[in-house]
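Two quick folds needed for the group meeting slides. Do the first one here.
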Amino acid sequence: MASLRVSVAGIILKNPTILASGIIGETGSSLLSAIEAGAGAVVTKSIGMEVRGGYPNPTVVELPCGYLNAMGLPNPGIDAFGEEMSTAVRGGAPVIGSVFAQNAEGFAVLCSRMEKYGASAVELNLSCPHASGYGMEVGVDPVKVSEIVRAVKKSINIPVFAKLTPNTHRIVEVGRAVQEAGGDGIVAINTLKAMAISVEAEEPILSNKFGGLSGPAVKPVGLRCVYELYEELDVPIIGAGGILTWRDAMEYIMAGAVAVQIGSAIGRKGLRVFGEIGAGLTRYLESRGLDSLDELVGVAHG
């Protein structure tokens, strides 16, 4: 039988599907539910140094092409998150700790705490498009990204993944900065900066005006970013953006991703999406007479 096992920077996943950050990852029990549903790994909600309440409602808009959200990075703070991690790590799958901060020192402290809590790896949120002073404002500058990755690598012994924003023409340059600073992998992509307006109210719907677009609409952008990064870099790439079916996942794999993150699809299909994608990938491998997904990573490059 074909195997879906993959290795990402030395971390073994039973299959290439990963729960994306920010979906249901704020509690240990919700992370466990994704593992039990078949996720090969899970990423926590992005956690900062202190409690953060996020933006007032409305924070989410459902669109025909996906979702638009501006949550504002709400989280309980790193001190309170240890208890949730202790629950999540009992699930038997890798737990990746997502963190955000305003500077390299902050990222290093948060990642050190995540390692102590039992995280298998950390994901640096360098790409949130709607939180002032965080995320995208940091992640479009290769110099700042390099400083952050170097500081984190010095502070921990587990793999470091950087989640990149598509809201820049320099994504390959930023990816190269991650690699040269010692980063162990890249996650591409986070959401696209976007907005929606209420015709009746004659004003923006989101309280923050701007938010991040996710779902099927962003898949072509995500694929392009993964394809470009694979052409230029040697570190593993985790694809994200608009993955709803096994075919979507396979497109990312053929573009160069070794694994994929699932987010918005949970809103449409629920947690069963992990099992459905895994089953579809297995059927495809067997129909081709292939033993492993490794044989298909990057094949679209010829």
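Then this one, please, same format:
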Amino acid sequence: MKDILACCCGLKVHKETIMACMLKGPLEEGLKPRSELREFGTQLGDLQGLREWLKAHDCRYVAMESTGIYWQPVYSVLETAFSDEMHLLVVNARHMKNVPGKKTDMRDAEWIATLLRAGLLKGSFVPERDIRDLRMLPHSARK
């Protein structure tokens, strides 16, 4: 695979944790990118910490699996990073062929980042924030 992104991050999102793998480095063939793994919680403060970590590394390309509804708060917090210049992909897990062998969240996050760095991921459709907010109105009216 030929790399096309100098810095990107893959996220494995769960209900209470997010495993993040950032790949950063030169795009010359034969040179491996530096990999940094971090684990974050899913509370607002933790998500803001994830956003600040990405901003500190100037990482503007992020991909995550569309695991149930757990990706939604992560997406909402990250989409405002870099004055809307963050490129977020929500990817259907079935469209990513995973690494064979023992599955771990770290390996999954690294595989997502590797595919993103090579430009091999296609994001699912995510409506604009205004539309997503409108879709939530019926849910908030029931409470």
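Slide caption for protein two: The chain has one domain: 7-141.
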